Amino acid sequence: MKHWIGAALAVVMALPVAAQHMGDDGLYKNPWMRDTFKDLREDLQEANAEGKRLVLFFEQRGCIYCKKMHEEVFTDPEVSEFIDTNYFVVQLNLHGDIEVTDFDGDVLTEKDMARKWRVLFTPNIVFLPEEVPEGQSALDAAVAVMPGAFSKGTSLDMFTWVAEKRYEMQEESGEDFQRYHARRIQERNDGNFD
Prior knowledge:
By secondary structure, the protein is of the alpha/beta class. The protein has helices at residues 2-14, 40-49, 64-73, 77-86, 110-116, 138-141, 152-163, 170-173, 177-188, and strands at 21-22, 28-29, 33-34, 53-59, 87-93, 99-101, 107-109, 124-127, 144-147. Helix content is 42%, strand content 18%. Helix 4 runs parallel beside helix 7 (152-163) and helix 7 packs across helix 9 (177-188). The longest helix is centred in the N-terminal third of the chain and has 13 residues, at 2-14.
């Protein structure tokens, strides 16, 4: 009997974290997402105070690719813990009406900000630096943008690449994100091309 209980416990522990709940706005919610006033200047200050990087998640109701990310990637404990430890996540709704204050002072609804930043599809993840020069928009200041749904390896590599500020080293090292990701695939050597 003990063997059965132990085996059942091992199976349960091997399963990914349960899918996150759906908010009233039709978007998936994760515990590491922040409910803020969406003033990006304040969000950046708070992220810096916590020693985290500000990242914006544009999503929309009914997005099958957002669903894939939330149910298959963000539920993986390694990915979820990395994001929670290193990032201050602000979720934005591609068709939302909540006002967002950009770094350049523009105050627009989420949907109008999406147009300003040329966000065409979801998910669209925008990574910000620790400091944004005065007058720049979030899109102009972004150090990386992850457009679309990717699997665990690509997603974790992108979040790691930004957290380690490898975008600052790419001229010197010759290792842009794609080369970094290719190297990480070889290092994992698990037969997966992701």
